[in-house]
Structure prediction request, 429 residues.
Amino acid sequence: MVPRIPDSPEPGGDPNDAYTEDRVPISNRNVLVSGGGVSGTALALWLARKGFAPTVVDSAPGPRAEGDHVEVSRRGMELLDRMGQGERIRHLGSHYTEIRTHISGRDQPILMPFQSGGLLLRHEQLVRALREAADKLPDPGVRHRDGDTITDLAQDDDGVDVTFARAPAERFDLVVGADGLYSPVRRLAFPGSDDDHLRYLEANVATFESPNVLGTRDALSWHVWPHRGCVAATLPGNERLQVQLLMRDRFPVYADSLDQGAEHRLVEEVFGEDGWRMPELLRAMADTDVSIVPATRVRMDVWSRGRVVLVGDAAYCPDRLSGQGPATALMGALALAGELSFAEGDHGRAFFSYEAAMRHTVREAQAVARHVVETGAPEAGPYEMWVRERTEAALTRGSLLLNRLGLRPPMDPVGEEFALERYAPMFDD
Ligand SMILES: Cc1cc2nc3c(=O)[nH]c(=O)nc-3n(C[C@H](O)[C@H](O)[C@H](O)COP(=O)(O)OP(=O)(O)OC[C@H]3O[C@@H](n4cnc5c(N)ncnc54)[C@H](O)[C@@H]3O)c2cc1C
Prediction:
């Protein structure tokens, strides 16, 4: 079922007599986007294509060459295809064709063919591809300001006065916070603090890249133990693995509270006695950087406040464990740009419809992270683990049978109900 977009409230905001090239009057043309990651870059691209004048400010000096791998789910890839970027981006990444579930006491994993239609690639490659598409737009296109950040915001009925760490202060019609989990725009423009908006999922996640010591090809391998688990996915080319270690804990671990080498020590402490291939993985870990972050999602009652609106992780981070962050960032950017374009810049109507378009998908995506924590690091003792693993094995065999009979339920339903067709006019150019 396609969610119904509720009727918009009465229009608000004054048209400022700006016109797109085809003479459609739009108000609020001058949009500042804080954060040039996935959502910010996509949003600016779409806005510029529809006659807005976006400026993107990012604290980083520019897209990096290296960086973490992220997943773009099938729905996200569908959206990139509609933008005309899918084919190019597919060449940069890979996807798994197999899930290997390892169970204690068994040498061989249970194999499950997997065709999610998603893609695993470096975050920076995705951002760079979107930015290159924006760079090809005719003038004025998207204005980029790298290496700067917003330090203050003050809005009135007609606009937002913004001060920056480096550039002189400037007034914009609208400000978008696309600046990630610890969004500075959210902190400056919305009541409450991060403590009110971030929800810790009671697990910390250690991530590192290593040579492919498992020797797997296009596969995601996993093994769980009581209160902890390991997921190792092959990276494009199968030479390397991305290893994620889930550790249940009532308390979040923050990198800035750790001394040098503490990440390695913590992982050794939690997984040092474990079997399977953990000894090899831990040896591989010794030569590489490890990051530990708390599994966290963002919950906010509203995503806009006057002329300021949030998108992507800043508004609704589903946590990286969900594998849905990039896709929900892309969907949110499309919905926000689409609604602003349909409402000819009337932000009151547009922000209302944007939230209505996204809420359902966000709820689904956030439920995935909770599920991954519960299954990937179960709150269970050894006996319950034994029962769980045997049940898992039976269910996997059941799914294989359903597969063979062609009765497989959709593997990746998040975003199925996002009304992509509503935004078809955004793909016209
Ligand atoms: C280290 C890391 C690993 C991840 N791994 C995965 C994964 O394996 N799977 C998965 O699905 N998702 C993963 N994610 C999450 C995924 O990258 C995001 O959900 C997705 O990119 C959301 O897009 P976004 O635009 O909201 O945020 P991002 O793409 O993260 O963009 C936020 C942007 O804001 C900028 N910014 C931050 N602070 C400021 C500031 N003060 N001023 C200006 N700009 C600022 C940043 O430089 C960045 O460019 C990971 C995220 C991180 C940070």
User: Anything to note?
Assistant: Residues 34-40, 57-60, 68-71, 123, 149, 178-180, 184, 312-314, 320, 323, 325-326, 329 surround flavin-adenine dinucleotide (CB under 6 Å). The CA atoms of residues 201 and 295 lie 5 Å apart.
